[in-house]
């Protein structure tokens, strides 16, 4: 894309604020190496193309835009004389990629002073060596801070994710492994029982009867009610008595399993009625294995279901396979974050959810919002710990005019008035060295305010701190559309 060449007037160029105080010779050199170009409405250069020229607007209107995801987002629109853009990092040489980091177009016929990138870099180095050093320091200093912050951001997410997850996964996984081992042993014993049956001590009718009872037993196990410890112990006593009365050995050992499986004396009476007296003990033993294997399979089912729920929550939390920007239900995000952090929150902190489920989904960067919740919950937990360790964390959602409110309220130590103005500053922390970096709230602020155009408010007194995140219900783009 190039414009129509026009004469370069050193005086006109010298009047632009950027070239203030340049000598006539210097202005002459600029005009000699550069050129003035006039562009009709339309594109001037495109983001990502090699940055070959430095543009200074003499008159007209420019629009700068950047590609975010699949969209072009306008970042600046101005008619201010002297604004510049293009290869303005040329003086950093090959230490940074020399490509346009935005796209520029003009919305009316617009005149630019255009300088080739090499000439721009040359004159800066030659005419302003000290400014160049300062700029370099600023640029690379900021880059390394940004890098450190991003790194920490990712580590934080990863750290809380894996710490929470490994802890939470451990219990059901261990339970499933234990249950599988016991199941293997029980199935082995059943094979052994089968061998005895095969020796022909039972008639085909009795076998058919037993198998029928076995089927009905398995069905009962699936529907077993949950009993209170007192009810369970009463029933165990009754079942033990029944077994003793019928001369079945080790009744006290079998009774708890039967009760857990929902079997009672009525059912035992039915079994007794269906088989001859002499084979009753074997029949009960046989059914005991059936019940045990059913219960073990239930346990394996429960633990593996819990594992898969946890993995779902981890996926929801990390948003690994989801679009970075989409409509999201904040409650799902909050729940997955609370699930990930449940080990960190611990049993001594009560978590109360006051969700307004009628709230709509909002346009958001869900993985980043999860990072915000993580930081705020982390802070609430620390504050409660500092106040003795026991307390309540209330997570509330509500509508606040055209915004959605997510409030984290804790019963911790509170934020002293003299700290309130500084808690969002990067590196401000009251935690001991090595415990906090003071970046949690800084990161959260940038995610909520810069990326979501929302805001964070703080209200605090000892024992009652509320951090309120307000997010727009619709995106700015949708509103203007
Ligand atoms: N809910 C809260 N109750 C009391 N004080 C808080 C609360 N949230 C934040 N603060 C104060 O604000 C400071 C800054 O918080 P921030 O999350 O930015 O950093 P940090 O928690 O100290 O460290 P990091 O989050 O990096 O581990 C905390 O050190 C603490 O003094
Ligand atoms: Mg923190």
TrEMBL record:
Keyword check for Cytoplasm: no
Top EC class, one word: transferase
Entry keyword set: Kinase, Transferase, Two-component regulatory system
Catalytic activity: ATP + protein L-histidine = ADP + protein N-phospho-L-histidine
GO MF assignments: protein histidine kinase activity
Matching SMART domains: HATPase_c
Top-level taxon of origin: Bacteria
Domain Histidine kinase: 296-475
Protein name per its UniProtKB record: histidine kinase
């Amino acid at each position: 894309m190039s414009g129509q060449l026009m004469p370069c007037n050193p005086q006109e160029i010298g009047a632009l604020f950027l070239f203030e105080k340049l000598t006539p010779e210097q202005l002459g050199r600029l005009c000699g190496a550069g050129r003035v170009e006039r562009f009709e409405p339309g594109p001037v250069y495109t983001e990502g193309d090699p940055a070959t020229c430095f543009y200074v607007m003499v008159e007209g209107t420019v629009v700068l835009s950047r590609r975010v995801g699949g969209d072009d987002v306008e970042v600046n629109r101005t008619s201010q004389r002297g604004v510049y853009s293009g290869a303005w990092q040329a003086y950093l040489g090959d230490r940074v990629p020399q490509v346009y980091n935005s796209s520029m177009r003009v919305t009316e016929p617009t005149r630019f002073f255009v300088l080739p990138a090499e000439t721009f870099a040359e004159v800066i180095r030659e005419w302003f060596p000290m400014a160049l050093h300062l700029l370099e320091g600023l640029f690379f200093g900021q880059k390394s801070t940004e890098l450190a912050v991003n790194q920490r951001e990712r580590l934080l997410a990863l750290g809380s994710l894996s710490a929470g997850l490994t802890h939470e996964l451990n219990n059901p996984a261990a339970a499933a492994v234990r249950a599988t081992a016991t199941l293997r042993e029980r199935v082995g014993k059943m094979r052994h029982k089968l061998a005895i049956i095969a020796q022909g001590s039972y008639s085909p009718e009795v076998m058919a009867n037993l198998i029928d009872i076995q089927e009905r037993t398995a069905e009962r196990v699936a529907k077993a009610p949950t009993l209170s410890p007192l009810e369970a112990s009463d029933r165990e006593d009754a079942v033990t008595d029944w077994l003793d009365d019928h001369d079945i050995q080790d009744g006290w050992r079998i009774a708890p399993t039967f009760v857990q499986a929902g079997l009672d004396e009525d059912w035992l009476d039915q079994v007794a009625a269906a088989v001859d007296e002499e084979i009753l003990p074997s029949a009960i033993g046989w059914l005991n294995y059936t019940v045990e294997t059913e219960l073990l399979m239930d346990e394996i089912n429960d633990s593996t279901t819990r594992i898969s729920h946890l993995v779902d929550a981890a996926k929801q939390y990390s948003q690994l396979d989801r679009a970075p920007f989409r409509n999201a239900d904040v409650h799902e995000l909050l729940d997955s974050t609370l699930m990930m952090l449940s080990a960190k929150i611990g049993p001594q902190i009560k978590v109360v959810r006051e969700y307004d489920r009628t709230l709509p989904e909002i346009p958001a960067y869900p993985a980043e919002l999860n990072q915000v919740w993580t930081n705020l919950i982390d802070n609430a937990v620390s504050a409660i710990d500092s106040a003795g360790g026991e307390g309540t964390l209330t997570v509330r959602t509500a509508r606040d005019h055209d915004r959605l409110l997510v409030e984290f309220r804790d019963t911790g130590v509170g934020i002293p008035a003299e700290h309130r103005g500084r808690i969002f500053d990067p590196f401000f922390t009251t935690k001991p060295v090595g415990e906090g970096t003071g970046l949690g709230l800084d990161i959260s602020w940038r995610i909520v305010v810069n990326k979501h155009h929302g805001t964070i408010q703080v209200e605090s007194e000892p024992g009652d701190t509320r951090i309120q995140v307000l997010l727009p219900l619709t995106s700015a783009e949708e509103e203007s559309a």
